[in-house]
């Protein structure tokens, strides 16, 4: 029988190895799933993980990679601080929607100006919209002790209804002949979030994601705030003793994740999506949760995890087109990835040991380096 | 606008039906949380139950077997959660979220071939004599058997938790798992059983949506019902009888909301559809602000991993 | 001599990196109180858990009443007639007394009958209990009664008591001893684990002493001096801390009419607590656990805010200051729970040094942490306080209790506090480390700092305090000079026996 034994120090080697192992295990399990669906597993895995980067259509799919990874990374970086501190904002999807809505609304108020100030103003409004939406669960938690998980999630459903309302009402394109959806922002130069370097997929959102990774890294490794976040997550009482105010931490972490999710929504609505529509949100806010954990809540890890997850999105679409693999299979595949990661996490904190074998500590001499005779 | 068309008796009767899926799912989660485990995967288990139940019912033509299949589906999914959380010591919040994401994907994958099919209908079971009582009869005693099952499970859970030795042990494990371990109780075994029960109940709740309420398979059929169930457990301060009240409240809100939509009330449809979620938040605030009473009732070991030390 | 009830032969139990028990053999007789002595980490609790079925030995056998005894789980131990009262109570706060007791029994009667039995047995042994009360509302002494009654209802042959008196006032201890003697006279064997030597001399007929997992000596405590037993436990001679009393300096910390409700669920509110400490002085605050010690520490460290004037530092009101601001002004604290409160177990020693050292040691500038300086600070603590560890990069939880405690106290002392408040500075720490910590506190005082020591260990307080005050149900007695206080007087200051009845002993 195998027993678990807590390690005196968490293993660094396993911390790096588990995400890789989780990806491999997911590929195997995913392959079995695809085989069960009657598809060639090797071909399916190849279509998902290889073709988007090096296949026949790579010149089209590679830019897509950054376009998809941008919002995932931006949102996940924001979430990672709260998750580390034990503050569970799982309503990033709602904050993403609100960011797009407020940003677009502020921008459209100035239509059809061609001022250079419009886009920065929209970004600020988008971030503020996300922050405001995230501060609702934060303030309710501080003031009344409500559970932020449930409140932030309920607000996602409220936000999707708001989105539908806005797309059919206040933000509807007056020249759209009654079709739902706003004016096309990506075709209005002052508000458009265009590709900055042709053929790369890099737009302002991707730049923002890169900046967020760098800033988050510095905050986490070197800044007092990052220390407070880690401390509060590991031992709340020690954090209180050190002088970390729990309420301020809740506000900071929720505002941070809300702001980044809101900005991500704005970058999306002015760029790749182009307009406010009923089906504007595609679940980035939820997938970002997987990205945050897969990246072990570490900025660099999140960068890699975001790229990987974007790959599964694009590869999944290709597999859908070429192998008619159902879209849901990809969603399942992403869920599996998170399961495997969580399952393997145990190796970082615990050691496996066969029970029954007597454990006799090594004599002190054996631990010392042996001299060559 | 036609508010006169809304009959209060019909409204209350449909409230009983509307509250059943949430009631079943919340009841399972209540037992899980009483054992000290927080499973945020209710939504995922519910929707998995919704599709496995639907598929079983379509395949066998029997709604009863469908509900059995739903319970099995929900329980099967909960096994993944149990293994990760109990034996691999993973974070309960993260694992629960993963279960929901996974369950949504799994359900829509299984559900591919079931779009647009009608489920065999679940027969109404009028209770003799009682159903003839004016007003009360139509409200309480003219439903399908799953509604009665939900009520029976509430009573049964109350009896189990407060009157039996096993229920006492379950509460003890949820209250202080280290002390329970020191007394020689099998913390993990008990929690595993509780999680299985929670999964089965969530599955039943999901199937009630796809087999009775809608009754067909549509993607995202649960629409946050699992999350509302989680909120109701907090609302009920972890007590089975108060759970009934919570479920009726939310059943009432959703029925009223639908009736108002149908009556063409001059309020945007989207605002009405938001109502159940906004009310959930409001109720959470009211419960939590009651001078910390909700937290007082929460099981002591809720959400904490258990690892037997030397 | 009475019969041998439990015979232990050659028990060995190893964990990775440590042998907890090595070839332990001894006998426990019926109708006797047998003491098990040893420092923290000597292997007492592993041995006891083996007897109670929570741990299975690698090698060795036991025999209970002449029959082989190897309980695979506590249930089997209880069935064989072995009962145990835990050091950290194994109780459920949200459940009532009767439910708690039912959980510890194999085949409990229906709750109504059980309640009657509880009332009956508790009065028979002078430990009255109301079976309907919620355990979370009970005092520490009452909680222990629940444990004892739970054991007695099973009519055990062997009763194991792990550090039972650490939560009791002297008067309550006397009542407990009367109960235990009554049980012994009825034929029960009692295995009594403690490090309080005078108690053992008063109660026990035999003693087995463990050191480093081995039995190093056995003796009759009635005829062996406490000092001799202590030396057998430690394996060397003991030195008592030396001090040069300064005293009479200016008052630096003043607490006036401090009244505050507890932030915790079953906590104790502070009521009108008033005291002051001067430079060069050690004020000892005694009291049984759960009488407001934690709350007092929270109010002084700044984790719990009060009205401004309730806490004054050098004349300035600091009651509303946050912890970091109090540190900057010279008021430093070391809470009781070293793992998870005074330190973050999963963080490195460097990070834990930064935890409180940030302000006074200048370890952060414009929000950016200087990890190099933090590491050097951690290394200084490790060196100055002889913390046994591979280096500042290891996680705090990998340190033994004594070493972590030295690190935590050292961290505060090295920051040159003007006032240092410590809670239970030597709890669960081996004798050598405890002596080092006490000496460091005295040295700090003689350098002109004011020191407040909150402790449940009266011997410790008498050893190092200039003045002594007692906390009882959130109220603090007036401080009195520590020298010349008798145990009786201290006991009365601590609140005497909380509603305990004298046993209606019947023979």
Automatic annotation (TrEMBL), chain A:
<feature type="transmembrane region" description="Helical">
    <location>
        <begin position="328"/>
        <end position="347"/>
    </location>
</feature>
<feature type="transmembrane region" description="Helical">
    <location>
        <begin position="65"/>
        <end position="83"/>
    </location>
</feature>
<dbReference type="GO" id="GO:0005886">
    <property type="term" value="C:plasma membrane"/>
</dbReference>
<keyword id="KW-0472">Membrane</keyword>
<keyword id="KW-1003">Cell membrane</keyword>
<feature type="transmembrane region" description="Helical">
    <location>
        <begin position="149"/>
        <end position="168"/>
    </location>
</feature>
<dbReference type="InterPro" id="IPR001851">
    <property type="entry name" value="ABC_transp_permease"/>
</dbReference>
<dbReference type="Pfam" id="PF02653">
    <property type="entry name" value="BPD_transp_2"/>
</dbReference>
<feature type="transmembrane region" description="Helical">
    <location>
        <begin position="95"/>
        <end position="111"/>
    </location>
</feature>
<protein>
    <submittedName>
        <fullName>ABC transporter permease</fullName>
    </submittedName>
</protein>
<keyword id="KW-0812">Transmembrane</keyword>
<dbReference type="GO" id="GO:0022857">
    <property type="term" value="F:transmembrane transporter activity"/>
</dbReference>
<feature type="transmembrane region" description="Helical">
    <location>
        <begin position="249"/>
        <end position="267"/>
    </location>
</feature>
<feature type="transmembrane region" description="Helical">
    <location>
        <begin position="12"/>
        <end position="37"/>
    </location>
</feature>
<feature type="transmembrane region" description="Helical">
    <location>
        <begin position="117"/>
        <end position="140"/>
    </location>
</feature>
UniProtKB/TrEMBL annotation, chain B:
<dbReference type="InterPro" id="IPR001851">
    <property type="entry name" value="ABC_transp_permease"/>
</dbReference>
<dbReference type="Pfam" id="PF02653">
    <property type="entry name" value="BPD_transp_2"/>
</dbReference>
<dbReference type="GO" id="GO:0005886">
    <property type="term" value="C:plasma membrane"/>
</dbReference>
<keyword id="KW-0812">Transmembrane</keyword>
<feature type="transmembrane region" description="Helical">
    <location>
        <begin position="192"/>
        <end position="211"/>
    </location>
</feature>
<feature type="transmembrane region" description="Helical">
    <location>
        <begin position="217"/>
        <end position="236"/>
    </location>
</feature>
<keyword id="KW-1133">Transmembrane helix</keyword>
<feature type="transmembrane region" description="Helical">
    <location>
        <begin position="6"/>
        <end position="28"/>
    </location>
</feature>
<feature type="transmembrane region" description="Helical">
    <location>
        <begin position="95"/>
        <end position="114"/>
    </location>
</feature>
<feature type="transmembrane region" description="Helical">
    <location>
        <begin position="145"/>
        <end position="161"/>
    </location>
</feature>
<keyword id="KW-0472">Membrane</keyword>
<feature type="transmembrane region" description="Helical">
    <location>
        <begin position="40"/>
        <end position="59"/>
    </location>
</feature>
<keyword id="KW-1003">Cell membrane</keyword>
<protein>
    <submittedName>
        <fullName>ABC transporter permease</fullName>
    </submittedName>
</protein>
<feature type="transmembrane region" description="Helical">
    <location>
        <begin position="269"/>
        <end position="287"/>
    </location>
</feature>
Automatic annotation (TrEMBL), chain C:
<keyword id="KW-1278">Translocase</keyword>
<dbReference type="GO" id="GO:0016887">
    <property type="term" value="F:ATP hydrolysis activity"/>
</dbReference>
<dbReference type="GO" id="GO:0005886">
    <property type="term" value="C:plasma membrane"/>
</dbReference>
<keyword id="KW-0762">Sugar transport</keyword>
<keyword id="KW-0547">Nucleotide-binding</keyword>
<dbReference type="Pfam" id="PF00005">
    <property type="entry name" value="ABC_tran"/>
</dbReference>
<keyword id="KW-0677">Repeat</keyword>
<dbReference type="InterPro" id="IPR003439">
    <property type="entry name" value="ABC_transporter-like_ATP-bd"/>
</dbReference>
<keyword id="KW-1003">Cell membrane</keyword>
<feature type="domain" description="ABC transporter">
    <location>
        <begin position="6"/>
        <end position="237"/>
    </location>
</feature>
<keyword id="KW-0067">ATP-binding</keyword>
<keyword id="KW-0813">Transport</keyword>
<feature type="domain" description="ABC transporter">
    <location>
        <begin position="253"/>
        <end position="498"/>
    </location>
</feature>
<protein>
    <submittedName>
        <fullName>ABC transporter ATP-binding protein</fullName>
    </submittedName>
</protein>
<dbReference type="InterPro" id="IPR050107">
    <property type="entry name" value="ABC_carbohydrate_import_ATPase"/>
</dbReference>
